[in-house]
Amino acid sequence: MSDESDKRARVEWGADPVLGTPDEVTAALQRMVTGLLRTPDGAPLRALEAGAGKRIRLDVPDDAYIVGVDTDDTAMGLNPRLHERIVGDLHDYTAPARSFDLITCWYVLEHVERPEVLIARFAEMVAPGGLVVLAVPHLHSPKSVFTKCTPHAFHVWFRRRVLGFPNAGKPGYGPYPTTLRPAIAPAAITALVARHGLAPVFEGYFEDDKQTRFRHRVGVRGWRWSLARGLVRALSLGLLDAARSEYVVVLRRDPARTPVSTRPGPVGSPRR
Ligand SMILES: C[S@@+](CC[C@H](N)C(=O)[O-])C[C@H]1O[C@@H](n2cnc3c(N)ncnc32)[C@H](O)[C@@H]1O
Known about the structure:
Blueprint (H helix, E strand, L loop, with lengths): L2 H5 L10 E3 L1 H15 L9 E5 L14 E6 L2 H5 L6 E4 L5 E2 L5 E7 L8 H11 E12 L4 H7 L3 H11 L23 H9 L3 E9 L2 H9 L5 H13 L10 E8 L15 E2 L2
Parallel strand pairs: 1-8, 2-3, 2-6, 3-4, 6-7
Antiparallel strand pairs: 5-10, 7-9, 8-9
This protein binds S-adenosylmethionine (SAM).
């Protein structure tokens, strides 16, 4: 596929995942989220940013109540949208069942020891009709394979020296150590949440913008990029796709098939 056809996103959800640039896929995802999110009687949205870092990625209504959880106090302190900042490990965090309308975990699960535990917990914490939005590196890409096979010190060096981020590795700044467990593969995620009554309503793939900038810098674009993608695909027997280095999914709890519980307060608490 060429750069041009990469850009032609199929922007509405059908049977197939959306494929496009990061902006195109995120815009399609945002439309899906905005169209689906409802709260009973127009109550303010309750949102959890799991691994909030410095920013939130999705547009939510101004009156939404947003809880952030992150181990990195410095990064979360720079996040202006949070109403609550809970400093701690997500593995130790829990909230009442069905207590959030929207749970977003964007570029976090690749850093944790037990992503399957966190995904199952998100599935329990989301309200009927609510959404869980997950973004992770796509395990079936050369970028993920390369990241998995190289040490963290190299990732810091690469981001600082090659990609040109002078703060890389300093407090509040990535890269964060990666685990890239098999549980974050697309099929593993959807199989796990199905057991908790959630189903995907949107899936998308895109190429990491840092990878795009890097390969453009070294002249891998146009026909060279098509050739590189073809070679990667052939040599990996169809397993890896260089253009699908990132995966996003929106998971929804079926409002009809889940008993409606009372709406507990918006806050969660670290579990000790
Ligand atoms: C790559 S950043 C992404 C931040 C933000 N979600 C975003 O999209 O920009 C990863 C974040 O996950 C946090 N993190 C990593 N492991 C964590 C854990 N076990 N518990 C809580 N936060 C964690 C890091 O501190 C960091 O802020």
